[in-house]
Structure prediction request, 281 residues.
Amino acid sequence: MENFVFLAVLGAALCHAGWNALIKVGLDPLSTTTLIGVGSGAVALLTLPFFGNPAWACVPWLIASVIIHLGYFAFLIEAYRAGDLGQVYPIARGSAPLMTATATTFLVGEQLTPIGWGGILALVAGVFLLSARGGRELAKIDGRAVGFALLTALSICAYTVIDGIGARLSLNPVSYSLWLFVGIAIVMVPYALYRDGRDVIPAMTAYWKRGFIGGALQVISYGIVLWAMTLAPIAIIATLRETSVLFGAVIAVVVLNEPLRAMRIVAALLIVCGLVLIRLQ
Prediction:
């Protein structure tokens, strides 16, 4: 993997952490998800004229990804309603790279070296440690929350593999990602109205600026990731994307003045070790 691609994906992870921090405005999970979906869709629509259209071969993959993304949002929302962040997040985000690496090995034929697998395992372990805060979140395992978290991880794996293939077939991964966000916005609004009635719209309007800025960061982040998947193994890029939790932890400590616990330091070291091994892949 070229140094530029490696650094670009780390930059995408930073953008991912940035928009997640930006939209923590106290809304319920459905309103928050819809807010960022509409914001990214609006940014994508404004940007599309500058990047042309993807090849027709990617359209079935694009449609499939939009449908799976809707399932992803639905599972994630239910997971957060049933369990705490400290329980749901590490299961969903930590399991997905392992699922993706396994799926791409058998479905796409991408073979990783033992060093690559070691990097993935180290980084995933760091994600689990960094996300798990201990206390009541992990003291009682909620079966419903765990079930939806695993379904979330499975949907992340599915759309990652589909988007990796679709971006390659598109011959224009940036345009592919823009159309993807337009499609997600189109399906998210009716879903939100169905789940929460018209109450979801007033809840979002007060934060439309954050939604627009957060949407722009999300478009940039995933656009870089899909571009990188056309140049490097899908599983490696998907795993590198999870370094967003490390950037999120830095934001929490530096900006939000959260304490720098020993567990966070150990987790950060594991993630860095994973990064080094992945770079050597």
